[in-house]
């Protein structure tokens, strides 16, 4: 039988060998499995926290945006940002401003986690392919960042779309709504049972098409703007550590969000209307005698665009844009900055810029 000293000696040798192997992997640019898993987990946590914090901060504006997008044009309740927020406060109280936010966070936290992580992985993959094609040590360009952001947006949107579907219905739901959902799980099971699996993905196509410019431009503008400010040292915004301050990064995020949402907003309106099709308070048309006709039904994305523009004009594609713009400026900015700060706190080595 081996002595205690022999066991300790063998354990020490094993530990040294393991450490040496991990050091070798590190020198070769390969992470040990446990270290790689920890890094991935930290990155996902950082993305999830960023999404939850940023979305909760602008929850009242998010709810008002959805209500403006789908309200009946012949029974106007919300005439603008200030009036709309006051109406919600008066009719539903403080909690009304945050109705649907729990569902929203349940969707946005995994969505944000997957989105940021997918962007990092897509960036590495696209850059690797680009370097193989050009045979030089090229850096990420705005176009490559746009492509990586588009990939990340599609993956994140597809993974969490059913949650977005029921979140929209819970947000719009009132006492007079045709269906009453008690929560996320009840809404998911009810829609699945009464309307079928395909209903959970109503509006998915315009969502995916819209996410390409929206998320793609968010990442491309934010990262490229930061990169330009750091390399050019424009306006003296770079500190002694060659880093940008929080206020500057917030401004970069605000610019990115504004560009992205302006381009993609009409697709967001169409997506929401397709999700809400058949609801009493959703957009409808008027017959010749002035009475409200049955709520519109859409036979697809193109049909939804056509009917919306025909019955309500081109401006209907930008309903809710003002509160959405006010929401996007802090939301995207907070998300990017929170993500980077949480990654710093957790000690994740890689940043999206790298």
Structure description:
The protein is an all-alpha fold and 354 residues long. Helices cover 71% and strands 2% of the residues. The chain has one domain: Mitochondrial carrier domain (Mitochondrial carrier fold, Alpha/alpha barrel). The protein has twelve helices and two strands, in the order ααααααααααββαα. The longest helix is centred in the first third of the chain and has 34 residues. About 3% of the residues have low confidence.
Helix content: over 70%
| CATH superfamily (homologous) name | Mitochondrial carrier domain
What is the helix tally? 12
For the record, give the distance between the C-alpha atoms at the N and C termini, rounded to a whole number.
53 Å
* The top level CATH class name: Mainly Alpha
Average residue pLDDT: 79
Unreliable runs: 25-31, 284-288
Which secondary-structure class do the elements indicate? Answer: mainly alpha
Write down the domain tally: 1
User: Approximately how much beta-strand content do the residues carry?
Assistant: under 5%
Please name the CATH architecture.
Alpha/alpha barrel
And the CATH topology?
Mitochondrial carrier fold
Shape: globular
Strand order of the largest sheet: 1-2
Main pleated-sheet profile = 2 strands, antiparallel
Order of helices and strands: HHHHHHHHHHEEHH
- C-alpha Rg, in Å? 24 Å
The overall strand count is: 2
């Amino acid at each position: 039988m081996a002595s205690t000293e022999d066991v300790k000696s063998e354990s020490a040798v094993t530990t040294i060998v393991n450490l040496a192997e991990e050091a070798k992997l590190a020198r070769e640019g390969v992470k040990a499995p446990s270290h790689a898993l920890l890094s991935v987990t930290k990155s996902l946590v950082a993305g999830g926290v960023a999404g939850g914090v940023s979305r909760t901060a602008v929850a009242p504006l998010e709810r008002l945006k959805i209500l403006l997008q789908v309200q009946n044009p012949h029974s106007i309740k919300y005439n603008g940002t200030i009036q709309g927020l006051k109406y919600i406060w008066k009719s539903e109280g403080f909690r009304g401003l945050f109705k649907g936010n729990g569902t929203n966070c349940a969707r946005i936290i995994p969505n944000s986690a997957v989105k940021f992580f997918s962007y990092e992985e897509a960036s590495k993959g696209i850059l690797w392919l680009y370097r193989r094609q050009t045979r030089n040590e090229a850096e990420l360009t705005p176009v490559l960042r746009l492509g990586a952001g588009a990939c990340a947006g599609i993956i994140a949107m597809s993974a969490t779309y059913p949650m977005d579907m029921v979140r929209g219905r819970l947000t719009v739901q009132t006492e007079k709504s045709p269906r009453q959902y008690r929560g996320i799980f009840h809404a998911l099971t009810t829609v699945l049972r009464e309307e079928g699996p395909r209903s959970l993905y109503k509006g998915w196509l315009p969502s995916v098409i819209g996410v390409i410019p929206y998320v793609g431009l968010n990442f491309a503008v934010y990262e490229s703007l930061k990169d330009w400010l750091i390399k050019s040292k424009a306006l003296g915004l770079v500190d002694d550590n060659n880093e940008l301050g929080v206020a500057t990064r917030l401004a970069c995020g605000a610019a990115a969000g504004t560009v992205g949402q302006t381009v993609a907003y009409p697709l967001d309106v169409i997506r929401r209307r397709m999700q809400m099709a058949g609801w009493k308070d959703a957009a409808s048309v008027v017959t010749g005698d002035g009475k409200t006709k049955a709520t519109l039904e859409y036979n697809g994305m193109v049909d939804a665009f056509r009917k919306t523009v025909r019955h309500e004009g081109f401006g209907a594609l930008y309903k809710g844009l003002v509160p959405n713009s006010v929401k996007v400026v802090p939301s995207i900015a907070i998300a990017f900055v929170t993500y980077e700060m949480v990654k710093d706190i957790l000690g994740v080595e890689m940043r999206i810029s790298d």
